[in-house]
Design brief:
heterotrimer; A alpha/beta (510); B mainly alpha (355); C mainly alpha (321); B: 355 residues; mainly alpha; ABC transporter involved in vitamin B12 uptake, BtuC; 14 helices; 74% helix; globular; C: 321 residues; two-stranded antiparallel sheet; two-stranded antiparallel ribbon
Chain lengths: 510, 355, 321
């Protein structure tokens, strides 16, 4: 167990303007599961890409099996037994499982032809050897995420990897699939003598599966320890640098009448699968209803259906007694629903347009910003945008600056500023602080609470359980498109919610 | 929304100027390889396009179809719908205008000319509507359909001009002449500059106002820059894309009408040597900005007119300017990539790496 | 009159007219597999046609004509790839620029080298040879249909098969298709998808060069301005019609070629050819509509089966325990 298989000495990686990795010394031992944890942007992925040859370090040395190596490209990494399972799967959707497994190192006949039968045999053999069941003939596009991940792992094993790097492997998995993955990982290490590096930011998982854990913060390696000596508290402190205890907000006092009521909602995802499966709930003025769940359990589709961006299959969305199911986004907006989307760059902003243009969205057809049916009144617009920039503390050189040059926090503040400024009675807020620094999180949380206290009905969707607990008055849990429980925040613990999020309600878990 | 943007605009104008200079240098090398002096050649090009009121008028006449088709491209492209079908819309517009002109021969110009323009606009707009609907209803790539539609329209009008509406006298592949009342006034003796230039100027102003000063233009541009954001913000993207496409088709139809009413006085089966493609390139070079379209159209007009004089005086084939234009476009298309490579070499500016 | 039009020579002509289409389309389908829509085929064909004539004229050898055309194809393929892949320019703008460049350059060179405008022909230009296959000589219909065609007709047949095998039976074909559909999948196993795209662009340049040289030295023995005559775009239509499968694309090229040949004959007897010429374009639009409809139906069907699919894959997942 003590022999080192990878040793990094003084690794640094500097991107223009950003130090992603700063003098990192790390040792991975043969036969261990080594977890690397850290917040978004801590430099975990960069470090792994350096080991895998996708990035070149600015400084430092990499030793593999005790030999100094220059890992100039992934091929060198692969030759040295390093394989990487990427967070976003690197599979060709229209190819079969077998074709994906062998892609790049195909079995051949007569030197130039591809041997498809052999590819299938290889895949089957690998499948059996490692207990990773896949059907070699099935096309990847028809397979579930969990199976796709297995193909990714098979791909890596086929290339003879001894060291597997798994980048956030559980982010897209259901709890059940996560448990299966952990079982596979343990078997690979114990029975097959592989070494695994797992990148994650979920501390629970680290404690569950790893032997040792390294913590990264802002490009630096803060420390490495045996997992048995670690606790969530210790790791969390190392990750954020200081003990972070957000103040609790006082709960709401005066809940008003119900503003939005969802009944038996059914929505499909992009692939046509049922993603939201008969969900019902209601939100009242002056309350925050938190939706807790592991990502990918239908939250995205639910939010899109509730804002007119996705077709509703069955059920109704009652707003002031009017059924809004399958209305256009503009009708939702007219009914007084504002939306902070989960992906600000893709949905919430036009990165190539200016701050002013981004703030104008939704006002462009309203008086006094528009007159004579189409003329834009620059003066009124600039007054409004300047006021919003100031009020929400959006740090930008000017209103003319392109949004893409702002920081993540300021982009999100821009979205919040615009959506909150409509004074909509209903706010649908999805992952409002993802990837933001603590200052911005605090600012946005306070804005949300202010809105609640002003009598808005707020639906908060977040994968961050701490965020849900901090802000929500009431919590529902979502699992595989269904609501599995409903609680008053004051009456419930995170542990209990965690159980419901994984589909185990008390009757089956107890 | 101008002041700070200027720095980004200036950067672009700089690289545009650089592209033009580089293309002209390559052109000069080709001229040298032909054993001629680039300086004399370029001097005769400038002189031949701007040297006298007549030459300037000829240059300006050349810009009319470029501006109209360029604006057509600017409106569509900045709304995220890629109308490559301008040439087909232009042909249909031209034929429609000619049809009015040789059919309703008794109308006075004051009624007849607007009528011809309206017919042309309708023809162009309708023809653009079909691929637009195919895109928003079925998600069919409009780049491919409009390319196909170009050929269909050119062949169809070619059929009309050769068979049912073929001229009884003279030319093959031409319709009858339009009635004299339809002919647009020529402004400068012997040049082809006609009153359509004023109409073009009015259209250019209107399009500028639409794109830069109105909520419609704002909606268009937001759809073009981030479709998902536009939809999320409550803009009816489908309807706006269709409208933008119709405007685009209307402008191309009018461009065709002017070729008939101001230039040839009849429909010809090859009435446009690819004006709409030229206009599209003009617009692409200036990133679909209205003011840029006008300036770049004039520049292309100078190249076109001047090249004839250059050929006359120095025997350098006028097609050289096509080569120069294509090189400008290539450089501009590669501008972002060049800039990135330069930046990588310098590697000092604050571009955020993927962490 | 009916007999004059619909006879065996019509089919022979169909093969002749389909040949430049399929040669260019094979190139275009290679780039479309690697994820590049190449609108510049029109210009690439034109350059091939011109340099084919130039090579054949100066060296009085059709082989030099082919060599010139291929060289021009390689160069323009590299230029295309350089801009689209290395400089990340819009493939569609680059394609149009190449068409404009080719149109301008060939006219310019036609005048500055040969001193003519419009068209250039000379007895010095050596045409591509016709191939006579002796044993077919004796078979009545096949002799007319398949024998005594110009060299590139036969090359095109070989290429259709070869490229089909290349795409679907070799690892390289797998890489080509992966590069278009999911380039990262290729990059992360150590094969540069950019290099694959680069290769496909160059191959497209060469094949368009073939199409061009066939036009100017096989189909005719002269060069005229814009003699590619929209074939690049019809080739694009054939690719769409044939879903970028070489065999299907050849079928499309044959159908388009048939209507082209038919049109020329109809014109001979005073019937407008415009409508037969329109055929490829109209059919392409209809095919696009049909494809979308088929995909929608498929999706609806999948959606219906959605619940079952998901539970099935989960059942499969459970087997690992």
């Amino acid at each position: 167990m003590q022999e080192s298989i990878i040793k990094l000495v003084g690794i640094s990686k500097v991107f223009p303007g950003v130090v992603a990795n700063d003098n990192i010394n790390l040792e991975i031992r043969r036969g261990e599961i080594h977890a690397i944890v850290g917040e978004n942007g801590a430099g975990k992925s960069t470090l792994m890409k350096i080991i895998y040859g996708l990035y070149q370090p600015t400084a430092g040395e990499i030793y593999i099996n005790g030999r100094l190596m220059n890992v100039a490209n992934p091929q060198i990494a692969i030759k040295n037994g390093i394989g990487m399972v990427h967070q976003h799967f690197m599979l060709v959707p229209s190819f079969t499982a077998a074709e994906n497994v062998v892609l790049g190192s195909e079995p051949r006949k007569n030197t130039v032809f591809m041997d498809f039968e052999e590819a299938v045999i290889i895949t089957k053999a690998l499948s059996e050897k490692y207990g990773l069941y896949v059907d070699p003939y099935q096309k990847v596009e028809d397979l579930s995420v969990g199976i796709q991940q297995r193909i990714e792992i098979l791909k890596v094993l086929y290339r003879g990897a001894d060291i597997l790097i798994l980048d956030e492997p559980t982010a897209v998995l259901t709890p059940q699939e996560t448990q299966e993955l952990f079982a596979i990982m343990r078997r690979l290490v114990k029975d097959m003598g592989k070494t695994i590096i797992i990148i994650t930011h979920k501390l629970q998982e680290v404690l569950e599966v790893s032997h040792r854990v390294s913590v990264m913060r802002r490009g630096k390696l803060v420390g490495t320890m045996d997992t048995k000596d670690a606790t969530e508290q210790i790791l969390a402190e190392m990750m954020v640098g200081k003990e972070v205890v957000f103040d609790k907000f006082h709960a709401n006092q005066n809940k008003g009448k119900t503003l939005m009521e969802v009944k038996n909602l059914v929505v499909r995802d992009n692939r046509g699968f049922i993603a939201v499966d008969g969900i019902s709930f209601s939100v009242a003025a002056g309350e925050i209803l938190g939706v807790a769940g592991v990502e990918g359990n239908g939250q995205t589709e639910l939010v899109e259906a509730l804002t007119g961006l996705r077709k509703v299959e069955e059920g109704s969305i009652l707003v002031n007694g009017k059924d809004m199911a399958n209305r256009s986004p503009s009708e939702f907006r007219k009914m007084g629903i504002s939306h902070i989307p989960e992906d600000r760059l893709k949905t919430g902003l036009a990165p190539e347009a200016s701050v002013n243009e981004n703030l104008l969205m939704g006002y462009q057809h309203k008086k006094p910003y528009e007159s004579f049916g189409m003329k834009l009144n620059k003066k009124a617009i600039y007054q409004k945008t300047a006021q919003l920039i100031k009020q929400f503390d959006i740090r930008t050189p000017s209103g003319q600056t392109k949004v893409k040059s702002l920081s993540g926090g300021n982009m999100q503040k821009l979205v919040v500023a615009r959506e909150f400024s409509f004074n909509s009675p209903i706010l649908i807020i999805s992952q409002p602080t993802r990837g933001l620094d603590i200052g911005a999180i605090e600012f946005i949380h306070r804005q949300i609470i202010e809105m609640r206290d002003a009598g808005r009905a707020i639906l908060l969707i977040s994968a961050d359980l701490d965020e849900i607990f901090r802000l929500s008055d009431r919590i529902v849990t979502i699992y595989e498109g269904k609501l599995t429980g409903e609680f008053m925040t004051a009456d419930v613990t995170k542990q209990a919610i965690g159980l419901y999020m994984t589909g185990k309600n008390l009757s089956t878990a107890g | 929304m101008k002041k700070i943007k200027l720095s980004q605009d200036l950067e672009y104008i700089f690289s545009l100027a650089l592209s033009i200079v580089l293309a002209l240098i390559i052109g000069a090398l080709i001229i040298l390889a032909n054993g001629k002096s680039p300086l004399t050649a370029y001097a005769s090009l400038i002189n031949g396009s701007l040297g006298s009121p007549y030459k300037m008028a000829t240059t300006l006449a050349k810009t009319v179809p470029l501006i109209l088709t360029g604006l057509a491209t600017a409106v569509a492209f900045s709304s995220g719908i890629f109308n490559i079908g301008g040439e087909g819309q232009l042909y249909l517009g031209a034929f429609a205008a000619a049809y009015v002109g040789f059919t309703f021969t008794n109308l006075p110009g004051l009624i007849g000319i607007p009528l011809a323009l309206i017919f042309a606009a309708l023809a162009g707009g309708f023809y653009a509507l079909i691929p637009a609907l195919l895109k928003v209803k079925y998600g069919i790539d409009e780049v491919i359909t409009t390319i196909m539609f170009n050929s269909i329209a050119i062949l169809f009008t070619g059929y009309l001009a050769n068979y049912p509406f073929a001229s009884s006298v003279g030319k093959m592949g031409a319709t009858e002449m339009i009635a004299p009342a339809y002919k647009l006034l020529r402004l400068v003796a012997r040049s082809k500059l006609h009153t359509g230039i004023f109409f073009t100027a009015v259209i250019a102003l209107a399009i500028y106002y639409l794109m830069e000063k109105t909520s419609v233009g704002y909606d268009f541009k937001m759809i073009g820059t981030n479709l998902i954001f536009a939809k999320y913000g409550g803009i009816n993207a489908e309807r706006n894309m269709v409208i933008a496409m119709i405007i685009s088709g209307v402008l191309c139809g009018i461009a065709g009408a002017f070729e008939v009413l101001g230039n040839h006085y009849r429909f010809l089966q090859a009435i446009s040597p690819g004006y709409a493609f030229d206009g599209m390139l003009v617009s692409l070079i200036v990133k679909n900005k209205v003011v840029g379209v006008i300036l770049m159209s004039i520049f292309f007009g100078i190249l076109k007119t001047g090249s004839i004089a250059m050929e006359f005086e120095t025997a350098i084939p006028s097609e050289l300017v096509l080569v120069i234009q294509a090189i400008i476009i290539l450089f501009i298309a590669g501008e972002k990539g060049f800039a990135q490579i330069l930046r990588r070499i310098h590697a000092k500016e604050g571009v955020r790496g993927d962490v | 009159m009916y007999r004059e039009i619909f006879n065996i020579t019509l089919l022979q002509n169909t093969i002749r007219t389909a040949t430049p289409l399929i040669l260019a389309a094979l190139g275009g389908l290679l780039t479309s597999h690697t994820g590049i829509l190449n609108i510049g085929m029109e210009g690439m064909i034109l350059l091939g046609a011109f340099f084919g004539v130039a090579g054949s004229y100066f060296f009085e050898s059709y082989l030099m004509g082919i060599l010139f055309a291929v060289t021009s194809g390689i160069i323009i393929g590299i230029v295309f790839a350089l801009f689209v892949i290395k400089l990340k320019s819009d493939e569609f703008i680059v394609g149009i620029a190449i068409n404009m460049f080719a149109g301008g350059l060939t006219m310019f060179l036609l005048r500055s080298i040969f001193g003519v405008k419009g068209a250039f022909s000379s007895p010095r230009i050596q045409p591509l040879p016709d191939i006579n296959i002796a044993f077919i000589d004796k078979i009545p219909i096949l002799n007319v249909l398949l024998n005594n065609h110009s060299l590139f007709v036969y090359i095109s047949w070989i290429l259709v098969i070869a490229i089909y095998i290349f795409l679907y039976k070799t690892p390289y074909g797998l890489w080509f298709r992966a590069a278009g559909e999911f380039p990262e999948a290729l990059d992360t196993v150590g094969i540069s998808s950019d290099k694959i795209k680069f290769a496909s662009s160059i191959l497209c340049g060469i094949l368009c060069g073939f199409a061009g040289v066939h036009l100017s030295l096989g189909y005719l023995t002269l060069f005229t301005e814009n003699m590619s005559a929209n074939r690049g775009f019809i080739a694009l239509a054939a690719i769409i019609f044939g879903s970028a499968n070489p065999l299907m694309t050849y079928v499309a090229a044959l159908i388009f070629g048939f209507f082209d040949a038919l049109g020329i004959r109809l014109q001979g007897v005073g019937i407008p050819s415009q409508f037969t010429q329109m055929f490829p374009y109209i059919v392409t639009v209809l095919v696009l509509i049909a494809v979308v409809k088929r995909e929608r139906d498929k999706k609806a069907l999948q959606a219906k089966a959605g619940r079952i699919d998901k539970s099935q894959s989960q059942a499969a997942g459970n087997l690992t325990r």
